Protein backbone atom coordinates (compact mmCIF):
# COMPACT_ATOMS: atom_id res chain seq x y z
CA UNK A 1 0.00 0.00 0.00
CA UNK A 2 1.35 3.40 -0.92
CA UNK A 3 2.00 6.01 1.75
CA UNK A 4 -0.76 8.14 0.17
CA UNK A 5 -3.31 5.32 0.45
CA UNK A 6 -2.16 4.56 3.98
CA UNK A 7 -2.51 8.20 5.08
CA UNK A 8 -5.93 8.50 3.45
CA UNK A 9 -7.07 5.26 5.08
CA UNK A 10 -6.01 6.50 8.51
CA UNK A 11 -7.76 9.86 7.97
CA UNK A 12 -10.94 8.09 6.85
CA UNK A 13 -10.86 5.69 9.79
CA UNK A 14 -10.28 8.41 12.40
CA UNK A 15 -12.88 10.71 10.83
CA UNK A 16 -15.46 7.94 10.52
CA UNK A 17 -14.88 6.80 14.10
CA UNK A 18 -15.24 10.35 15.40
CA UNK A 19 -18.45 10.91 13.39
CA UNK A 20 -19.75 7.56 14.63
CA UNK A 21 -19.13 8.67 18.20
CA UNK A 22 -21.15 11.84 17.64
CA UNK A 23 -24.01 9.89 16.04
CA UNK A 24 -23.87 7.24 18.76
CA UNK A 25 -24.11 9.87 21.47
CA UNK A 26 -27.02 11.56 19.76
CA UNK A 27 -28.97 8.38 19.09
CA UNK A 28 -28.42 6.71 22.46
CA UNK A 29 -29.04 9.37 25.07
CA UNK A 30 -29.73 12.73 23.44
CA UNK A 31 -32.85 11.43 21.68
CA UNK A 32 -33.93 9.54 24.80
CA UNK A 33 -33.58 12.73 26.83
CA UNK A 34 -35.65 14.65 24.31
CA UNK A 35 -38.34 11.95 24.46
CA UNK A 36 -38.71 12.55 28.20
CA UNK A 37 -39.83 16.12 27.55
CA UNK A 38 -43.33 17.22 26.65
CA UNK A 39 -43.73 17.25 22.84
CA UNK A 40 -43.56 21.06 22.58
CA UNK A 41 -40.46 21.18 24.81
CA UNK A 42 -38.83 18.32 22.91
CA UNK A 43 -39.46 20.05 19.58
CA UNK A 44 -38.05 23.31 20.93
CA UNK A 45 -34.97 21.53 22.31
CA UNK A 46 -34.44 19.71 19.00
CA UNK A 47 -34.73 23.02 17.12
CA UNK A 48 -32.08 24.49 19.40
CA UNK A 49 -29.82 21.49 18.78
CA UNK A 50 -30.37 21.83 15.01
CA UNK A 51 -29.24 25.47 15.17
CA UNK A 52 -26.08 24.58 17.08
CA UNK A 53 -25.11 21.42 15.19
CA UNK A 54 -23.74 22.82 11.92
CA UNK A 55 -20.57 24.26 13.44
CA UNK A 56 -17.48 24.57 11.26
CA UNK A 57 -15.75 21.82 13.25
CA UNK A 58 -18.64 19.36 12.88
CA UNK A 59 -19.09 20.17 9.18
CA UNK A 60 -15.36 19.66 8.62
CA UNK A 61 -15.55 16.34 10.43
CA UNK A 62 -18.64 15.11 8.58
CA UNK A 63 -18.00 16.41 5.07
CA UNK A 64 -14.21 16.57 5.23
CA UNK A 65 -14.16 12.88 6.08
CA UNK A 66 -16.61 12.33 3.22
CA UNK A 67 -14.27 14.13 0.83
CA UNK A 68 -11.27 12.13 1.99
CA UNK A 69 -13.27 8.90 1.71
CA UNK A 70 -14.37 9.85 -1.81
CA UNK A 71 -10.75 10.46 -2.85
CA UNK A 72 -9.71 7.14 -1.28
CA UNK A 73 -12.59 5.33 -3.00
CA UNK A 74 -11.57 6.67 -6.41
CA UNK A 75 -7.91 5.93 -5.75
CA UNK A 76 -8.72 2.38 -4.66
CA UNK A 77 -10.98 1.84 -7.69
CA UNK A 78 -8.09 2.76 -9.96
CA UNK A 79 -5.77 0.30 -8.22
CA UNK A 80 -8.00 -2.69 -7.51
CA UNK A 81 -5.11 -5.11 -7.88
CA UNK A 82 -3.32 -3.59 -4.88
CA UNK A 83 -3.67 -5.34 -1.50
CA UNK A 84 -6.44 -3.83 0.59
CA UNK A 85 -7.83 -1.65 -2.18
CA UNK A 86 -11.16 -3.49 -2.29
CA UNK A 87 -11.62 -2.87 1.44
CA UNK A 88 -10.76 0.80 0.96
CA UNK A 89 -13.21 1.04 -1.91
CA UNK A 90 -16.07 -0.51 0.07
CA UNK A 91 -15.33 1.39 3.30
CA UNK A 92 -15.02 4.75 1.55
CA UNK A 93 -18.20 4.20 -0.44
CA UNK A 94 -20.09 3.13 2.70
CA UNK A 95 -19.15 6.37 4.46
CA UNK A 96 -20.01 8.57 1.49
CA UNK A 97 -23.36 6.87 0.88
CA UNK A 98 -24.28 5.77 4.40
CA UNK A 99 -23.26 8.93 6.23
CA UNK A 100 -22.99 11.89 3.86
CA UNK A 101 -25.78 11.11 1.40
CA UNK A 102 -28.19 9.81 4.05
CA UNK A 103 -27.54 12.90 6.18
CA UNK A 104 -28.04 15.31 3.29
CA UNK A 105 -30.99 13.52 1.65
CA UNK A 106 -32.88 12.26 4.71
CA UNK A 107 -31.88 13.75 8.04
CA UNK A 108 -31.35 17.40 7.10
CA UNK A 109 -34.73 17.75 5.35
CA UNK A 110 -36.49 16.17 8.33
CA UNK A 111 -34.68 18.49 10.73
CA UNK A 112 -35.60 21.48 8.56
CA UNK A 113 -39.27 20.49 8.71
CA UNK A 114 -39.09 20.51 12.50
Comma- or semicolon-separated keywords:
4 helices, elongated, single chain, mainly alpha, 87% helix, 114 residues
Task: Characterise this structure.
- The chain has 114 residues and is mainly alpha-helical.
- It has one domain.
- Helix content is 87%, strand content 0%.
- The chain has 4 helices and no strands.
- The longest helix is centred in the first third of the chain and has 33 residues, at 3-35.
- The chain is elongated.
- The model has no long low-confidence stretch (mean pLDDT 92).
Lay out the secondary structure.
Elements: H1 3-35, H2 39-52, H3 56-78, H4 85-113
Helix pairs in contact: 1-3, 3-4
Provide the succession of SSEs: HHHH
Helix and strand composition category: mainly alpha
Compute the number of structural domains. Answer: 1
pLDDT averaged over residues:
92
For the record, give the distance between the C-alpha atoms at the N and C termini, rounded to a whole number: 46 Å
Label the overall shape. elongated
Mind summarizing the main beta sheet?
none
Number of strands: 0
**Helicity level:** over 70%
Q: Uncertain spans, ≥5 residues at pLDDT below 50?
A: none
As a whole number of angstroms, the C-alpha radius of gyration is 17 Å
Q: What portion of the residues fall into strands of 2 or more residues?
A: under 5%
Total of helices: 4
Give the quaternary arrangement of the chains. Answer: single chain
Amino acid sequence: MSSFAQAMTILCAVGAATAAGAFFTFSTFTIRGLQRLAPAQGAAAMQAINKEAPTPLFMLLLFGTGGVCLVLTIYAALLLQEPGSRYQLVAGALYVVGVVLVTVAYHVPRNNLL
